[in-house]
Write a structure and sequence with these properties.
With 78 residues, the chain is of the alpha+beta class. The protein folds into 2 domains: 1-40, no CATH class; 47-76. 33% of the residues lie in helices and 23% in strands. The chain has 2 helices and 3 strands; from the N terminus they run βββαα. It has helices spanning 47-60, 65-76; strands at 11-18, 23-29, 35-37. It has a 3-stranded antiparallel β-sheet with strand order 1-2-3, with no helix packed on it. β2 and β3 form a beta hairpin. α1 runs antiparallel to α2. The mean pLDDT is 78. It binds zinc ion. Residues 3, 5-6, 8, 29, 31-32, 34 line the site of zinc ion.
Length: 78
């Protein structure tokens, strides 16, 4: 694990940070004294869970599964 600011590996664990979607490990850099949470891929692909959640809600709201699939295909490319 390296500091995302100064790239030093003088990084210590600094408790957990609760985010909307997950609890992230928080780190403190002892070199530049900055704090950060572990980076992951979730931010980059945030829209995929969103689309799936929306599809599930549409299905619950009474749309047939084929309509939801069609909607997903048209709008999400899935
Ligand atoms: Zn640093």
């Amino acid at each position: 694990m390296r500091c995302i600011f100064c790239k030093s590996d003088c990084v210590v664990k600094n408790g957990k940070r609760k985010r909307k979607v997950a609890t992230k490990q928080s780190y403190l850099c002892t070199n530049c004294k900055k704090q950060f949470v572990e980076p992951d891929d979730f931010e980059r692909m945030w829209h995929k869970p969103m689309i799936i959640t929306r599809a599930v809600h549409q299905h619950i709201d009474g749309l047939s599964l084929s309509k939801v699939q069609n909607h997903l295909w048209q709008h999400g490319g899935i």
